[in-house]
């Protein structure tokens, strides 16, 4: 058995329980040592007992020769995670095939348990033949183990699927399962491979369908439990997986990388982590994308924003001109030689920096909403205002409620970004030896800077204002001129005549925004990151060089006419560090740095380009999660667009976020509210947190300013910063303003008790799994809301009626 992960360990232990001798091989020495010592690295009911009673028939090793020696079956149960393009990563599978000794005697059979794309079996067969292993057979035997009931599922399966190239090899695999009473499905290898993908996709479709019905029930006052019961009694459909809830659980860049997003009409430069937390059901989201044959960067609809937990290596890809982006090793990049994974990049590869936003813009008003006009201020009072330098609040409110965003306005905003800050009222005029500072004591301009324009209150938190992205080029230039007036400079190169423009800031977000804004003007700036002696923060220097680029930005600096004359004497040469094309500047990869990472990774699905523009203007490919999309990707690779599965995934992602909307309905703004999440694992009887809905809900609540507590009897993750993990349900709900049932653990069926009611600050229950009896919960004094369940809802059906509902 190759692979001691979830599938390999359960399958190997259960085969031993059937009386077979099993050797499980894994490449991680620590895992093998733990297994040899009797320690089970995963939580799965019954597995520890199966392993313990079969000690004499189970062996664990890291040596491939020990595993293969005398083996009749070579099971492959290694991971096949998705690449950024959506295809399965088969590197672990090929490693197993390539490691097989070239002199294996007899007729051993390679049996594929890993989830692989259709066509993998034929590729493995060709690879074996090329290595001279024609004596080795091949069979596809997909797994259908559900976490939490995997041992039972192996011993009491719904079916065993065996797809073989040679009938005799399939017969031997069927015989291996002697003692298990179930239906055997004999088929060819491609059909067996597709059964696994199609079964999971159809299951997800049913779950998403009933969740959509639940949303309709919420609107019309119907009860989704009664609807599902009525539908499920139709013999053509059956009752399985017609239970509404939060959604099913299951990319990629780290969350600190940025995108230029247009959310519900407002354009912002935002991190992927923040964007994921902010997007809600029904929001209109576009992100800046790029296509190699386009006229420039363009905003396109983002179908899905994804996130998944990831523990392993990440790669920081560094390029000339100071661009950096951190991704998973299998993230695909656009290069001049076609698509390549991050792990495949070398210093011979060139990556695109998107240039020039391909859309026209018109100047807009900045609305501050400070009141209505009541007439002019008298001339006498106006004189007092000039002498004192101050307006009374009611007088300020009588002024116009909008400001025309002309070039002068944006120049002042740029100067504030470079030199200004917002704080409590103080002295309005300060003089120093080299500078004069003027402070405006009014909440109105403060509202312009922070609330309307989205600027930071101090230099380290400054950012490019949101509204500038949709302004015409003249206003972008005026803003940059104000920025350069504050903290910019110019200097000669080697005493002239060459000139460079420079700007320094302590804010990473501001540096990123300025790089992108210059890119909109067709300027490629170099970014240098460093830290001064005794400093505790990085500094970011933007450098614009090259006579042609500097000439186009002379209005940014004083003595522009003098510089223009100097630049006429400069020799024109090809730019250093990049290669310019009409819609992009191509920068060369200088290094790929590896480092460990344990957290969440993110991506976007943007059609039809399948790209988005991230930090510093780099254009990268997007990627898509694994569960449903393996079949979607297979269809797409075959020339068919599986739109239904696209919709299935979108429904599932949005369903997780509806819980937050329900909490807001009862509590209003969630800032300062205490919320208890009951259940963390993606389903009961497992500690698996991968793609668990609890992650989405928890971080969405944190982004709203809520205090989050959580409880789970088995899952105790250490990668949920900001969330307090409690030892008991009562500890989690104590003083809570609301509790959310996230995982349907049996322990929660008695949740609506007097003890829980008295412990909560507000007895509000959001039943994300429709686990509880609504009538009983309300009778116990709780404010209860399920998923698609009205006040007159029927009691919840016992979950034991349908074994598959636990899958």
Description:
The protein is globular and about 100 Å long. Strands 8, 9, 10, 11, 12, 13, 16, 25 and 26 form a nine-stranded antiparallel sheet that branches. The chain is of the alpha/beta class and 807 residues long. The chain has 25 helices and 34 strands. The longest helix has 32 residues, at 189-220. Residues 239-245, 247-251, 367-374, 426-433, 624-632 and 794-807 have low confidence and may be disordered. A hairpin with an 8-residue loop joins strand 23 and strand 24 (539-544). 44% of the residues are buried.
List the helices and strands and how they pair.
Layout: H1 6-17, E1 22-25, H2 29-36, H3 47-53, E2 58-61, H4 64-68, E3 73-76, H5 91-99, E4 109-112, H6 120-130, E5 137-140, H7 150-155, E6 159-164, H8 167-176, E7 183-187, H9 189-220, H10 224-232, E8 253-254, E9 258-263, E10 266-271, H11 272-278, E11 285-289, E12 298-319, E13 324-327, E14 332-335, E15 338-341, E16 350-354, E17 365-367, H12 379-388, H13 393-397, E18 402-404, H14 407-419, E19 429-431, E20 436-438, H15 443-452, H16 473-487, E21 488-492, E22 499-505, H17 508-520, E23 526-530, E24 539-544, H18 547-551, H19 560-567, E25 578-580, E26 584-606, E27 611-613, E28 619-621, H20 629-637, H21 643-667, E29 674-678, H22 693-703, E30 707-711, E31 723-725, H23 729-733, E32 738-741, H24 754-759, E33 764-767, H25 774-779, E34 783-785
Parallel strand pairs: 1-2, 3-4, 4-5, 6-7, 29-30, 29-32, 30-31, 32-33, 33-34
Antiparallel strand pairs: 5-6, 8-26, 9-10, 9-11, 11-12, 12-13, 12-26, 14-15, 16-26, 17-18, 19-20, 21-22, 22-24, 23-24, 25-26, 27-28
Helix pairs in contact: 1-3, 9-21, 11-22, 14-16, 21-22
């Amino acid at each position: 058995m190759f692979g001691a992960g979830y599938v390999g360990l359960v399958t190997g232990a259960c085969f031993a329980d059937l009386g077979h001798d099993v050797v499980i091989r894994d490449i991680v020495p620590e895992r093998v040592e733990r297994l040899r010592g009797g320690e089970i690295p995963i939580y799965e009911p019954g597995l520890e007992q199966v392993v313990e009673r079969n000690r004499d028939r189970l062996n664990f090793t890291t040596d491939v020769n020990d595993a293969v020696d005398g083996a009749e079956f070579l099971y492959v149960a290694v991971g096949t995670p998705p690449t950024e393009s959506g295809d399965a990563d088969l590197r672990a599978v090929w490693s197993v095939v390539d490691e097989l000794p070239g002199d294996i005697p007899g007729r051993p059979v390679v049996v594929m348990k890993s989830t692989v794309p259709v066509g993998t079996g034929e590729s493995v067969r060709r690879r074996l033949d090329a290595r001279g292993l024609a004596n080795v057979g091949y069979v596809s035997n997909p797994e259908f183990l559900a976490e939490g009931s995997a041992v039972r599922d192996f011993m009491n399966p719904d079916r065993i699927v065996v797809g073989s190239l040679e009938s005799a090899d399939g017969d031997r695999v069927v015989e291996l399962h002697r003692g298990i009473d179930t239906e055997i499905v004999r088929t060819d290898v491609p059909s067996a491979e597709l059964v696994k993908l199609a079964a999971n996709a159809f299951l997800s479709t049913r779950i998403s369908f009933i969740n959509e019905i639940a949303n309709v029930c919420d609107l019309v006052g119907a009860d989704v439990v009664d609807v599902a019961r009525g539908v499920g009694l139709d013999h053509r459909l059956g009752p399985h997986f017609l239970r509404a809830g939060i959604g099913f659980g299951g990319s990629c860049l780290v969350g600190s990388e940025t995108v230029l997003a247009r959310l519900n009409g407002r354009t912002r430069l935002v991190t992927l982590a923040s964007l994921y937390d902010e997007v809600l059901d029904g929001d209109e989201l576009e992100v800046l994308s790029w296509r190699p044959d386009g006229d420039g960067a363009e905003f396109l609809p983002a179908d899905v924003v994804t996130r998944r937990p990831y523990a392993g290596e990440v790669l920081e890809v560094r390029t000339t001109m100071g661009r950096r982006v951190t991704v998973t090793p299998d993230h695909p990049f656009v290069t001049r030689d076609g698509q390549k994974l991050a792990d495949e990049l070398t210093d011979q590869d060139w990556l695109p920096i998107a240039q020039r936003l391909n859309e026209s813009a018109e100047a807009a008003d900045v609305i501050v909403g400070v009141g209505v006009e009541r007439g002019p201020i008298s001339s006498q009072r106006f004189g007092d205002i000039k002498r004192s330098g101050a307006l009374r609040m009611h007088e300020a409110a009588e002024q116009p409620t909008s400001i025309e965003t002309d070039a002068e306005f944006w120049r002042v905003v740029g100067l504030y970004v470079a030199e200004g800050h917002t704080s409590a009222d103080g002295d309005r005029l300060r003089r120093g030896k080299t500078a004069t500072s003027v402070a405006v004591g009014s909440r109105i301009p403060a509202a312009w800077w922070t609330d309307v324009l989205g600027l930071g209150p101090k230099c380290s938190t400054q950012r490019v204002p949101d509204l500038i992205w949709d302004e015409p080029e003249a206003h972008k230039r005026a803003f940059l001129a104000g920025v350069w007036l504050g903290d910019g400079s110019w200097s000669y190169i080697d005493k002239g005549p060459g000139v460079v423009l420079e700007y320094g800031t302590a804010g990473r977000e501001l540096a990123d925004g300025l790089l992108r804004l210059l890119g909109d003007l067709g300027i490629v700036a170099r970014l240098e990151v460093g830290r001064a002696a005794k400093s505790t923060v990085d500094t970011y220097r933007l450098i614009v060089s090259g006579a042609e680029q500097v000439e186009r930005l002379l209005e940014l600096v004083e003595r522009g006419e003098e510089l223009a004359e100097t630049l006429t004497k400069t020799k024109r040469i090809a730019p250093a560090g990049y290669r310019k094309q009409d819609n992009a500047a191509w920068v060369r990869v200088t290094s790929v740095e590896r480092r460990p990472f344990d957290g969440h990774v993110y991506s976007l699905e943007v059609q039809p380009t399948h790209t988005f523009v991230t930090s510093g203007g780099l254009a990268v490919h997007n990627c898509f999660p694994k569960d449903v999309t393996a079949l979607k990707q297979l269809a797409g690779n075959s020339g068919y667009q599986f739109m239904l599965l696209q919709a299935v995934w979108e429904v599932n992602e949005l369903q997780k976020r509806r819980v937050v909307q329900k909490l807001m309905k009862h509590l209003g703004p969630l800032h300062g509210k205490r919320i208890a999440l009951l259940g963390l694992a993606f389903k009961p009887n497992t500690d698996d947190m991968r793609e668990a809905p609890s992650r989405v809900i928890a971080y969405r609540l944190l982004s709203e300013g809520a205090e989050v507590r959580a409880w789970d009897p088995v899952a105790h993750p250490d990668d949920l910063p900001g969330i307090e993990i409690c030892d008991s349900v009562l500890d989690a709900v104590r003083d809570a303003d609301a509790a959310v049932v996230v995982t349907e653990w049996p322990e929660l069926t008695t949740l609506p008790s007097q003890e829980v009611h008295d412990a909560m600050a507000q007895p509000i229950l959001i039943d994300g799994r429709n686990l509880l009896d609504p009538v009983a919960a309300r009778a116990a004094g709780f404010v209860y809301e399920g998923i698609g369940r009205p006040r007159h809802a029927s009691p919840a059906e016992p979950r034991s009626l349908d074994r598959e509902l636990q899958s």
